[in-house]
Amino acid sequence: MDTVDERGQLREDVAKFSSYELAEKFLVWQWSSAARNALHLVGIGPELYARGIDPDVEAAEMSAGIYELRLASDRAVLMEPSATIFSHLMSKSVDEIDAMARVGITAP
Question: What is the mean pLDDT of the chain?
């Protein structure tokens, strides 16, 4: 998966996923992080990163700073710090990730 950051910079091959569902979870997390940043709210990433790799997820370092995450038959390849954060999101539904992202956001 390639991404473009808020400055328009292309980053190629930042992530690989074994399923559409994992890619969807990753994108919801990325989009919610951008939205929270725009609202001057802390993202969900720092708290999850501080926990380290989820103990239920197997993490194998493929090369310096790049990890394959394994949870049952699901696989994701990500760079740090995304690998550590995403390890906590792999077992969650898209709705759960969305709910996490909405904490602290009030309706007008």
Answer: 88
